[in-house]
Structures are given as structure tokens and as C-alpha cells.
Design goal:
4% strand, 303 residues, 72% helix, globular, 11 helices
Length: 303
């Protein structure tokens, strides 16, 4: 019951407060990661895989051990766990970034919608039409719902404060180092593979959650037939199931850094619109409610 209540408290804190406006610990961690990357990868990206492994260990393992020690402090350990989960979650942040896109589309302000969606996706947004903007934002909500919400809850449930810290820092390093570019292809290999491993089970549980809360049969069909063609082993199931659950079509061609990428189609149905961005957010929130209810019910049955 303590674990379930801690999860509930962390979600409530995130819903009430959102991300810290100042001095977010991940900002300081990002500076540490930059310093380690410069030290072990060099200014020209000459680091090998072993250098990336060493840098990852130095960045993640001491802070994970610190979280374990703090969580064991008598009297306040439970509070440390709740705060660390709150800092790892990005549930309210999803809405804070995606809803301005939807609102701009409702106002028929395509220029503002392109600007807002450009803050949450890495693709080129300057030439996107309304379905393109809606598609990009909906994909971001579904994928980040898995990465920034469900995976954090999963690892907290599995391993408490050390688990959620290990996961969140690993996910951050993947976002910083896990690129298939000349600079990071070797150095960032470990960060990308570790993040893939840590997200494997949470992503599939997220996909199942999306499917059960939407058009289940269609979502499961899209997951089974479309996800294997997606380049990410974890984003594919999440977005295919989410798109199927919502009854919209995501994926397809997109431009990144001026180059056209032929991405597979995900989901089945009509092109997405502003309302579907909001529906994707509703799907994530409903999924969090189901997970919390399952944790509380499981704790009650166990007791």
C-alpha cells in the first residue's frame, strides 16, 4: 500500500505543480552530461563505445546510489521517494506543451500552431498543414506519454526511488547522446541501447493500456502489423496502438533537417485534427488513472 500511495502522491504533485520552473535537477544533470561528453568523446566525436559506457556509468550510477541512500533515511525516506517520482514525471508537462498547439489550430492560426509544435518535435514544421501539425503533436503526446509518464511509474513500482532515478537519467542521456550521427554513433551507442532495454516492458504495457482504453481490436491489429516496420522498437508499438485506439492515421513521410524520411503509416482511420491532440492527452490521463487504480487494488488485495 505504501508503494501505491507514493505513486498516487507523485502523480498528484505533478498534476498540481508541474515541472519546477527554476533549478530543475535535470538541467544540472544535463550540464554534467555535456561535460562528460566533452571529456570522453572529445570536440570531434572520436570516442569509442567503451568511452560512452564509462561516461554513462559516471553520470548515472552515483546518483542512483545516492537516491537509494536517501530513500532509506528513517522518517523522511518516503518523502524523498515521492519527490523523486514527481521530478521524474512529465504528465502535466505533456499538456503544457501540446495544448497550445491544439488551441492555435482551433483559432485557425496555423503559423502559431507550427511554432508551438516545433518546440516538441524534431522534424521540420515550417511547411506543415493542419493534419501535419496535428499528426506531429499527437505522435509526441503518445510517445512521450510512454517515456515521461508510464515508464517512470513502472520503474518506480519495480525498484522505488533508485529505479525511477536510473530510468529518468538514462532516458535523458539517450535524448542527448543517442543519435545516429558521426559524433554520437559510437559514443552514444550505450545510452541508446540501455534506454531501449529499460523502455521495452513499459512501452508494451503502455501500448496495451492505450488499446484497452480505445478501439481495442483496431489498436491491437495496428500494433501487431505496423509496429515491426517502425525504426524504434519501443515507439512503434506505443504509437501504432495509440493511433489505432484513437482511430486516426499517424506516421507517414516527414522532413528532418531538410531531408524527407519515408516513415510507415501507423494507425487506421482519418487524418488527425486539433481534437485528436486533446483525445491523445485524455488517453494518457485515463491510462495513468487505470495504472494507479491497479496499484491500489493490488496493494489492497495483498494486504
Amino acid at each position: 500500500m505504501s508503494l501505491a500511495l507514493s505513486c498516487l502522491a507523485g502523480v498528484v504533485l505533478d498534476a498540481l505543480l508541474g515541472e519546477p520552473k527554476r533549478a530543475h535537477p535535470l538541467v544540472a544533470f544535463g550540464r554534467l552530461a555535456d561535460a562528460l561528453e566533452r571529456r570522453f568523446n572529445g570536440p570531434e566525436g572520436r570516442g569509442w563505445r567503451s568511452h560512452g559506457v564509462t561516461a554513462w556509468c559516471l553520470a548515472v550510477l552515483p546518483l542512483t546510489a545516492l537516491a537509494w541512500l536517501l530513500a532509506r533515511l528513517p522518517g523522511v525516506g518516503w518523502l524523498v521517494e515521492v519527490v523523486l517520482l514527481y521530478l521524474a514525471l512529465g504528465l502535466r508537462s505533456l499538456g503544457a506543451h501540446a495544448l497550445p498547439v491544439a488551441r492555435a489550430l482551433w483559432r485557425n492560426d496555423l503559423r502559431e500552431a507550427r511554432r508551438c509544435v516545433g518546440h516538441i518535435v524534431s522534424r521540420d514544421t515550417t511547411a506543415l498543414d493542419v493534419p501535419g501539425v496535428s499528426r506531429a503533436a499527437t505522435e509526441s503526446v503518445l510517445e512521450n506519454g510512454s517515456d515521461a509518464v508510464f515508464a517512470a511509474l513502472f520503474w518506480f513500482a519495480v525498484a522505488g526511488a533508485p529505479g525511477v532515478v536510473l530510468y529518468r537519467l538514462s532516458n535523458t542521456l539517450d535524448a542527448m547522446w543517442g543519435y545516429r550521427t558521426a559524433r554520437f554513433e559510437r559514443f552514444g551507442w550505450a545510452a541508446a541501447r540501455i534506454d531501449d532495454g529499460l523502455n521495452y516492458l513499459p512501452a508494451r504495457l503502455t501500448a496495451l493500456t492505450y488499446a484497452l482504453l480505445g478501439r481495442t481490436r483496431r489498436a491491437l491489429h495496428c500494433w501487431r502489423t505496423q509496429a515491426p516496420r517502425w525504426d524504434s522498437p519501443n515507439a512503434g508499438p506505443v504509437m501504432a496502438a495509440g493511433a489505432g485506439a484513437l482511430g486516426v492515421e499517424l506516421g507517414g513521410p516527414a522532413f528532418y533537417h531538410g531531408e524527407r524520411h519515408e516513415r510507415p503509416v501507423l494507425g487506421q482511420g482519418r487524418a488527425p485534427g486539433a481534437r485528436d491532440i486533446e483525445r491523445a492527452l485524455d488517453l494518457v490521463w485515463a491510462g495513468v488513472g487505470v495504472w494507479l487504480l491497479a496499484l491500489l487494488l493490488g496493494a489492497w488485495l495483498h494486504a
